[in-house]
Design a protein that fits this description.
Layout: H1 2-6, H2 9-18, H3 23-30, H4 42-61, H5 92-101
Length: 102
Amino acid sequence: KYIASMHATNHVNLINNISSKDNYYQNHTTEKFHYIYFNNDCSESAFLAAGFVIEVANKVATHEFTSAISLVRPPVHHVEHKQPTGFCFFNNVAIVANYILN
């Protein structure tokens, strides 16, 4: 829900489904994007990273934690609304900011 609020449906679907594809498809899809690499674990890692950042931010927002830092991979600062790029799958910063603000 929160990921979909910050990224195009096609983008979310790509990340959600790419790990279940064969190596040929993953490699062919990799060639379409700048500095991105797909493998059998990237879907799970991308969604876990986004979920973890939301969980940590929620604990700070509800005063369960006084502060926190999330060290997650893959990184998040290069991704675009409609496509992954720059070794990034989702923009966790934008996702968590939208979550907290809403």
